[in-house]
Amino acid sequence: AVVDVLAKKLHAAIAEQSLGSTHVPAAHGFTAQVVGALHPEGVFVVDRARGNLVVVDAKTQSVVATVAVGPEPGTIALSPTGETAYVTLISAAEVAVVDMERHQVAARISVEPNPYAIAITDDGDADDYDEQIFITHLLAFPRPGAAEASDNSRFGHVTIIDPKTNSVTNQITLQPDIHGFPNLLTGVAVTESHAW
Q: How big is the chain by its Cα radius of gyration, in Å?
């Protein structure tokens, strides 16, 4: 219930901030993901309808920054130090790299279609560049030579990015199993040795 109340307040605050003095109900054409990322600036919200990353002061519930990241942002992850935000852009097949000090996009990383969930490792040191970024792709990819509309006709993908070079370093293929092919990969979590 608390999350619902906060989400409604955030929706209203963002709608008012983005649209100036025009009042539009928050539910009208607005899709957002409230991101529970710890950062001195507050809460991060992905405004999918407008292609923005919005920074909201958690105490005052007011918008303190809006960064245009690109079409249809999916999810966000912060680097361990909070200096960089990574936002998946579903329609653009990119990841926007956002400098959180300057509140601007510093780089764009091209990836395969439909990047969605994102997570970053944290080895406990102050160096963000020795981590790995894991990205799922929402929709499964066709398997070459497989008959479409069968349980083994597609495979899932997870992309690994190096934050030092902002480049793709590996692709993990998730093959079909007895339950069918992996599809709608909407979440990812990482530990020291595994991605889930």
A: 18
